[in-house]
Amino acid sequence: MLANLRLTLRNLATLLCLIAHAQATYKLQERYSWTELDFAFPNPGLKRQALASGDYIPQNALPVGMEHWGNRLFVTVPRWRDGIPATLTYINMDHTPAGSPELIPYPDWHSNTAGDCANSITTAYRIKADECGRLWVLDAGTLGLLNTTTYPCPYAVNVFDLRTNKRVRRYELRPDDINANTFIVNIAVDIGKSCNDAFAYFTDELGYGMIVYSWEQNKSWRFSGHSFFFPDPLRGDFNIGGVNYQWSNEGVFGMSLSPIRSDGYRTMFFSPLASHRQFAVSTRILRDKSRVENSFHDFVALDERGPNSHTTAHVMSDDGIELFNLIDQNAVGCWHSSMPYQPQFHGVVDRDDVGLIFPVDVKIDENRDVWVLSDRMPIFLFSKLDYNDVNFRIYTAPLSTLIDNTVCDIRNNAYGPSLFRQADVPNVAPSSRNYLTPVVGTGYSGTDLAKAYVFNNGMSYEIGSGGPHLFPRYSENLKNTVTTRNSDWWARH
């Protein structure tokens, strides 16, 4: 009997350890999930009618983008197949804080009419809510995917006032902004000195370019003469969710914007989908349409992330922490941009071999909460989803929780500002903006390149040339100070 009791206690202890391990492993908390997407039709009769006519085919709907603002969580559903009743939708989180809610068309059903180019959104991919309370939506204007694609409408930038739910602008991209292969699926929004000083950036994944739109000028232009927008021919093979497939022609895709730097501009970080690299350029270059043809050397190539490191969406926090979806690893990665862009300074904030199969979008909201959407896209496209299983999930967690105990949390590890002598930090008041290290090769002056910025509990300090830089090697003083589990990095550099 005593032996049985001991065995029972041992089993209980093992179970508790497993539970604790699971809780420690999964930082992202599932908020919403669906076996298949459902939509909030005005009444059950119209829903039955749509199902009968083929206007609504639940198994054809795949979520690819999301954004959080206020009490709403927006979800986009491209019209890749027939039977998608709405492409731009949202969840009222006050009414449905969790579960498998019906998606509500935004701003209404009429505005989601396919082919009504001037008044509606035909197909939306990723979207962005800015700090001025506007939702930026690029209507791709397409129906179908790849060889089934038709083009009933032109590419058009649509901007909605989230307080009134009214569209405040529609801008059609110029013919020179696109080409025969154009496939624009991502957006980043850059707010400068005011809400009018706003730029949107769009990556042309298959046309290999980047389109810039100025809100104030109401004009757009295209950067396309750069090999960094192209896929890496050695990185076109993918193995995700038990499916092997080749996306060898997938070019520039994910983007993230740094906080505003000391010169008033940000750094744009971007990655092709078929690549293990990230690249960078100052928005000073992108904002200047005269630099479209003569800015090749202003773009910077960073180191490879390492094996199995294809990424989809990126995002960067206001204190310089970049998150990126690692689709090969069913994971979300991180990098603190005050560190060198090298694998040993990259972390994994969460991994889930069931729930995070193909994390397709990631966002950080105004409360510094992270939102991640996973959708099993390769299985949807190249195999067949099991609609008895959960296929689509939206997770959330505070950013501080995600980076805790990772290399990206410089507040609590050997990489952080505590490495610097107090004398190195000027006695200045915290800035209202968080600045990052200027990027080598982006056109900054030599004076700017001799500066570095570090972060401490959300405050930014400027230090002298003896501190670390984003891309050059660290100074000898810092090298001699560091004791870290990655100390072998110094031996190689």
TrEMBL record:
Origin: domain of life: Eukaryota
Signal peptide: 1-24
Subcellular location per the Swiss-Prot or TrEMBL entry: Secreted
Record keywords, A-Z: Glycoprotein, Secreted, Signal
Coiled-coil portions: none
Predominant cellular place of this UniProt entry's protein: secreted
A GO-annotated cellular component: extracellular region
InterPro entries, sorted: 6-blade_b-propeller_TolB-like, MRJP/yellow-related
Similarity field: Belongs to the major royal jelly protein family.
Physiological role: Controls the pigmentation pattern of the adult cuticle and larval mouth parts.
Name assigned to this protein: Protein yellow
Annotated source species: Bactrocera dorsalis
